[in-house]
Amino acid sequence: MSQIDPHLFVIFGATGDLTKRKLIPALYHLMQDEDVARRCVVLGAARSDWTDERFREAARTALREQGYAEETVDAWCTRNLHYQCLGPEGNDYEGLRERVEQLERHRNLTGNRVFYFSLPPSIYTQAIEGLGAVGLNTSSGWSRVVVEKPFGHDLDSAQRLNERVHQHFDEDQVYRIDHYLGKETVQNLMAFRFGNALFESMWNREHIDRVEITVAEPLGVGGRAGYYDQSGHVRDMVQNHLTQLLSLVAMEPPASMDADAIRDEKVKVLNAVQQPDPRADVALGQYRAGTMGGEPVPGYRDEPDVPADSDTETFAAMRLNVANWRWQGVPFFLRTGKRLPRKLTQIAVRFQSAPVSLFQADGGPCVPRDADCEAAPNELLITLQPDEGFDLRFEVKAPGNSDDGSMPLETQQLSFSYQDAFGPVPDAYETLLRDIIVGDPTLFVRADEVEASWQLYTPLLETDLPVHSYEAGTWGPDAVDRLLPTWTSTGR
Ligand code: NDP
């Protein structure tokens, strides 16, 4: 790990779900490195009237639930975790400042601070202004503020939030999290594209027929209905995660691996994506009751806290065009939803067919674009979840001859599995927290990037579109066929 400065890691929302499930385990894991453990002190904050000991107990329970050994967990919690109540209104920032300074004195810290907002998005502005009001935005060391998704709910709110943040923090102090970017396989997209001349030389409209990005999950809305029903799937998944994947697949090679060089290219390609025509290029859906894994599951409207007449989409598919020299004319299809048949995050790149196929029964050449030829196009499947790896599909001659005298072809694949090559991959939050601590913003979303992304989906979010019903456990509503009847990843 790069150089770790001594620092205080303040978690706002320390009593919440994300802290328990992701932040505490990621911090614990990072601090298995004794160097980090000595240099990082964690201060949880929230409205609940908890003590240090109550916070430690919650952390111990969370870590034990994830299978960590009791003794090391106990010692770590006692040594590294503290808690400060922000009062019933969550506005006691003066008390927070005093505690921060006291801890820094006692633990010989030098004024380096992370402020992690694991808060309801409606509280982000209050927290930013609270920090600014008591001077916690400046210190004798560095200060970094980490903002969880969602960053705004449309272009206007994202711009206003950026303005507020920039009143108190410079852009290079702000780390906007999209945890997809912390996944090894997402980062590997860059290694794959820019470390291998083989594929990059074909990564354009001359050779690629279409790109499909699928993010499917079998789960329903769970306990998040209060937030989700207001937000919907385009805001919850497309604007951030799928758009990040799109920009990594479509961006130009950066001049260097410098954070801004990479983020400049991501913004550039996002600015080249044309706004989809909501009626022609988009299909939305909402799951109804169905059967999954042999068990009946309720429809979205029957989930707890979802209004019985909700029109919120739990599925979105769309066709996007990247209007630049590399991609003009190559459709990018995005598809994501809840209660789909299985967990799958995959980018499927379909290459153009051979210009002429020689393998028909009559021996005659067949032009793939005009006819149903024997030779299938090459496909590259980049799987991010659940079995991270690549599969490259190509045609081979099957042994023997066909009865009709044609050469029998069969699709085979070359495969690479991340797990087989490297063993278990680190959790995305661990990667991202480490980057925050060492001050590497490469995997975080810059202000202009978040705004470019909201800009792209504004017409869609402002259009009253039909939300088609689909049965839980299927690949979405029939309306998707209008965009793309057969998806490479799943055949539907
Ligand atoms: P929770 O509702 O579980 O937790 C919210 C936390 O914020 C609680 O600790 C709550 O504690 C605190 N809080 C609420 N209001 C205030 C206030 N006015 N002042 C100070 N603290 C307050 O939410 P999650 O942990 O699930 O999510 C947190 C953030 O992370 C959200 O922005 C969410 O979108 C994002 N996120 C969450 C994911 C997850 O898996 N949970 C995944 C990706 C993103 P108290 O009531 O004690 O004040």
UniProtKB/TrEMBL annotation:
Entry function: Catalyzes the oxidation of glucose 6-phosphate to 6-phosphogluconolactone.
Binding site for NADP(+): 13-20, 47, 149
Pathway: Carbohydrate degradation; pentose phosphate pathway; D-ribulose 5-phosphate from D-glucose 6-phosphate (oxidative stage): step 1/3
Swiss-Prot/TrEMBL keywords: Carbohydrate metabolism, Glucose metabolism, NADP, Oxidoreductase
Name of the protein: Glucose-6-phosphate 1-dehydrogenase
Residues in coiled coil: none
Enzyme class (EC, first level): oxidoreductase
Name of the encoding gene: zwf
Database matches in Pfam families: G6PD_C, G6PD_N
Listed EC numbers: 1.1.1.49
Catalysed reactions listed for this entry: D-glucose 6-phosphate + NADP(+) = 6-phospho-D-glucono-1,5-lactone + NADPH + H(+)
